[in-house]
Amino acid sequence: MNEQYFQIYQYGMAAQLKELTLDEMVEYVLNHLHNFLLDESVSFCFIERFANDPETGKHTQATRALLYLLDKALQLRPFRPGLLGAVVKLTGNTAAQQRMDLIAERNLDKEIYDQISGLDIKKDAEDVATFIAQLIKAHPDHIAAAQFALTVDRHLGIPYGHWRDDFVCPQAIRRDWDIALFNHHASLCDYDSARKIWDSLHMDMVRETSLNMAAEMFIASGDRAKGIALYKASLEQDPRQTPVRLRVRELEHPFQPDASLTDSSSVSICLYSWNKGEILGQTLQSLSRSNIGSATLHILLNGCTDDSRAIVDAACPLFPNNKVVIHDLHVNIGAPAARNWLMRLPEVQESQYIAFLDDDVTVPENWLASFLTVAEQDDSIGVVGCKIVHPGMPSLIQYLFRYVAIADHGLLKMSIHSPLGSYDTHSYDYIRETRNVMGCLHLLRTSAVKNIKAGFDIRFSPSQVDDIDHDIAVCLEGHKVMYCGLVTCVHHQSSGVNFKRINDNIAATGSTMGNDIKFYFKHLEHMHAVKALDNLSLDLGVRLPEF
User: Is the pLDDT of residue 442 over 60?
Assistant: First the structure.
């Protein structure tokens, strides 16, 4: 195992990337581009890795990747002083120099701005919003502060911050600022405001990032043809956008779930719960409103000491056409063991499919029909999952899909599970193969998981690593994991005011770190096979990105 493991764990992706060679780094970026559209955090992380390597200038692909990333980052944060400085230094771009000079002239109280922009908005967004608004009030044409205020508003899900009443945009950057405002409103699905701005934009200045957002804006209004046209225009500007290609394919050939499969297929729906009676009752109500056909329900009460049993008993009449079996355990055996206990029940083993859902989800009406339709397309499909979002509007994406990002240098790291801090604009509403989906709502083909000896490995209790490990085991057995983004599940876990905050619980951090180490050593002997579970090796039916 890597000798710097604890430092790498602490500093995350940035520390992981330092372990890679430039060739490996280029491949890492291409894997990411084949998965997600670039977000600000990832773009800056990649830029820092390339820009700080003295060998990048001698490496053709690394240089191309860096220039590409700088261009993307400028689309996302066009008035960030440090980013503009990097562009000017590396390219000598005169337009970037002029913009940087303009921003510098108005960057009054620079020390205060640097202090505010250096704060962690993941922890202290409300305080940061107050500080930056005060700075803008004192200096109404402070461009850098206004852009940072937009970033904070987006993090908080606020379409229009009151600081905008004080901001006076310099005429020289008015057109660029309008594009930034459009991106802000469109990213929050505030399409009424976004459309008003869109109609006033100078189209010759609109880049692919904005075109993607505009595409979903028009699709939401019912103009699918316009949305497809905008997405295709985006691909002309940047052909490396695999998610856009997959989205266009779905729009041109819409997925149609077969509702009859819920009755013709043998399905066991399994869920387990520990002392969450109220939310469990809400989950069962949501489940009853969906089409589950003739599926059998198995509900495991995992050593509950609250009123969960009474709530489940009261919910049983909601399923008049389904067999409901309640399993009472006297002790909480944890999530992985609960899944295994349910999955190994003789009646469940006789089912064609096993669906697992958590006790704190809201499911859409056609989730099971959609999962079954995807699974029935190919006997090699072992797992089907979906798009997971946080509660609230706009909905913040919680989890999409993952692949093995690093399986070398004494590390085993999965890719990020979604673009960081992204709201659900429906850009990922399509179906594709992947390596891992979230386990709070997913479907397993019984024949595909029977031979996985560890099942959901109890060594990973109580964290989510058992879900990831199980999907990796499914892939190593030669089966496919599929993501169905046409199904959206609301996962209420960690919802509320603090759901975006960093977990400061030391004990929980220790458990997560321990599972990360166990994950590595479990797969150490066959790391070469695990390394092959990247993203670029998947045949998605679209061209691969390249530099």
Answer: yes
